[in-house]
Design goal:
Shape of chain A: globular
Structural class of chain A: mainly alpha
CATH superfamily of chain A: MetI-like
Number of strands of chain A: 0
Order of helices and strands of chain A: HHHHHHHHHHHHHHHH
Number of helices of chain A: 16
CATH architecture of chain A: Orthogonal Bundle
CATH topology of the largest domain in chain B: MetI-like fold
Number of strands of chain B: 2
Order of helices and strands of chain B: HEEHHHHHHHHHHHH
Strand content of chain A: under 5%
CATH topology of chain A: MetI-like fold
Strand content of chain B: under 5%
CATH class of the largest domain in chain B: Mainly Alpha
Number of helices of chain B: 13
Oligomer: heterodimer
Structural class of chain B: mainly alpha
Shape of chain B: flat
Largest sheet of chain B: 2 strands, antiparallel
Number of domains of chain B: 2
Largest sheet of chain A: none
Number of domains of chain A: 1
Chain lengths: 277, 292
């Protein structure tokens, strides 16, 4: 246990830290404070930071009555979980094959898969839209999710992690009569849990926050995701700033809370990833 | 014995391909195929249904390069990238350094700053849209200035920049504070014993040691910045008078909005080569000595 004795520079540094921290999170604080204001307070000049009362929850009510926000959350959660699960499972299987199996075109296929990382997803959305509409998947969960299934970077990180696991682990498991899949799911995955939990969180946040593709591929209000939904609060009610901010806060909260919950795990395994990747 | 070994090898091969099948399928159908199709579209005449009607060589590119909205979009995208990448890197590095040690309260600060990376682009855009509103927004009133931000063609791009830089801070911070924490203490301590000051230690020891993290952050940020489109779509719709139109935004509006698939494909291919070029350059420049 290290003892901290306070001196003047220490206190100044602490103040600087508090200030910088507040500065970074300020947009979130601003949205939060604004979500309790009334339309009247918003039109009052000069604009003030704090609302008159924190008990004014009418904006949150408005968000959930003006738009099917509950449905948006459901869609976001469903598509995000779908992407994370399929993406990680397919990446795990591929990483397993690359780590333990010997087969023709192994190197070629590895490079071929990594090559997908050179193509930014945003550049192919117009042609992907044609594919998805030909498959009759527009306006469905699968349509929103399917273009994000390929996870080359996840495959790469998992291959790194798997190859660092001791080979004796597999030999022992196989002597006990374990099959490949059983070994993967009941020995290998628990062994490198920090890695895939981190990858899962990254994929989760990225997909939860996706905007361009979900906007493009959905056209009925029922299928919108949260991100698309809150950006549409403006087009219907252009001057309702307080409702917009309430919607924003509602959309920010779930991933941020989730993030804070698993933050310790993330910040430990991220450094490993940044060094090896 | 030899026979069974051979059979075993064959089985293993079959199983390998089976395991690789899902990710290969997704990669081919939703990455490589659309990419090749986009490349093909860019050198073809395409009708509004998205069907190829003929070969047109480089005519599409020639036409695109002569369009004023394209040069505006290219300029805006490059400017966004040129400012965003170094600025985000600098802010994230400074914050990472300031908050990396175990002083009282740092755990809470770290969590707060890092949690902004979970804030979505559309939520951030909506918030900045209100915050930077010239009349009811708080920023102008607080600073006592009359900048019209998103309504003025001279400042709108900087308003977009504020959103994109802010969104990059959380993740960059997380990477750097962890990287600084992982720097070998004994190296730093022995340098200090040799009389090196804090600034020298930072520049000559710590920064070179965390170079892989810097490189990683520059690469990912460059690609993200070149792909900027979301805040533009939500806040400014590319305006006022194209001041914030970016390449991907232009691609989206010409391809999906106006049904001009060939032109959208050209823009996509140009964006692709830009990201490729920038990635290669930043990888190259970080190979030598010094900090990128």
């Amino acid at each position: 246990m290290k003892k901290h004795s306070f001196s003047l520079p220490d206190a100044a540094l602490l103040l600087l830290r508090i200030f910088l921290c507040l500065l970074v999170v300020f947009p979130c604080v601003y949205a939060f404070l604004g979500s309790f204001k009334t339309a009247d307070e918003f039109s009052r000049l000069p604009p003030r930071l704090f609302p008159d009362s924190f008990l004014n929850l009418s904006n949150y009510e408005a968000v959930f009555t003006l738009a099917p926000m509950g449905r948006y959350f459901f869609n976001s959660a469903g598509t995000t979980l779908l992407v994370c699960i399929v993406k990680l499972l397919s990446a795990m299987l591929a990483a397993y094959a690359f780590t333990y199996f010997d087969f023709r075109f192994k190197k070629t296929l590895f490079v071929f898969l990594l090559g997908t990382m050179m193509i930014p997803a945003d550049t192919v959305i117009v042609t992907n839209y044609q594919t998805v509409s030909r498959l009759a998947l527009t306006d469905t969960w699968l349509g929103i999710a399917i273009v994000s299934f390929a996870g080359a970077s996840q495959m790469f990180m998992l291959t790194q992690a798997f190859s660092q696991a001791p080979l004796a682990l597999r030999q022992a498991a196989f002597l006990d009569g374990c099959s490949d899949l059983r070994f993967l799911f009941s020995v290998l995955l628990p062994y490198c849990r920090p890695v895939w939990v981190t990858l899962f969180m990254q994929a989760f946040v990225a997909q939860w926050n996706a905007y361009l593709w979900p906007l493009l591929v959905t056209n009925s209000d029922r299928m919108r995701t949260v991100q698309v939904g809150i950006s549409m609060l403006t087009s219907t009610e252009d001057t309702n700033y307080q409702v917009i901010l309430a919607g924003t806060v509602a959309a920010i909260l779930p991933p941020v809370l989730l993030f804070i919950l698993v933050r310790r795990l993330i910040s430990h395994s991220l450094t490993e990833g940044a060094v090896s990747g | 014995m030899l026979m069974s070994l051979k059979r075993h090898k064959k089985r293993e091969q079959a199983r390998a391909y089976l395991y690789l099948f899902p990710i290969l399928l997704f990669s081919v159908v939703f990455v490589y195929y659309p990419f090749l199709k986009t490349a093909l579209f860019s050198v073809s005449t395409v009708n509004f249904m998205g069907e190829i009607t003929g070969f047109s060589g480089l005519d599409n590119y020639r036409y695109l390069f002569s369009r004023r909205e394209f040069s505006a979009a290219l300029g805006n995208t490059l400017r966004l990238t040129a400012i965003n990448v170094p600025l985000t890197l600098l802010i994230a590095l400074c914050l990472g350094k300031l908050f990396s040690n175990s002083r009282p309260g740092n755990g809470l600060f770290q969590t707060l700053i890092a949690s902004t990376m979970a804030v979505s682009m559309s939520a951030a855009s909506m918030t900045f849209r209100v915050l930077l509103n010239p009349t009811i927004g708080w920023l102008n009133a607080f600073l006592g200035i009359g900048v019209r931000w998103y309504e003025d063609r001279n400042t709108a791009l900087y308003g977009i920049l504020m959103v994109t830089v802010w969104m990059g801070i959380g993740f960059g911070f997380l990477l750097f504070q962890a990287a600084f924490r992982n720097v070998d203490r004994s190296v730093v301590d022995s340098a200090r014993l040799d009389g090196a000051g804090g600034m020298r230690i930072l520049l000559l020891i710590e920064l070179p040691l965390i170079r892989p993290t810097i490189l990683y952050s520059v690469c990912t940020n460059t690609i993200l910045a070149l792909m900027t489109s979301g805040p533009v779509m939500i806040i400014t719709k590319g305006g006022p008078s194209r001041a914030t139109t970016t390449l991907i935004y232009l691609m989206y509006t010409t391809g999906y909005g106006s049904g001009n698939y060939a032109m959208a494909a050209c823009i996509a291919i140009v964006s692709f080569f830009l990201t490729l070029l920038f990635t290669l350059v930043s990888l190259q420049s970080n190979k030598g000595e010094g900090i990128g």
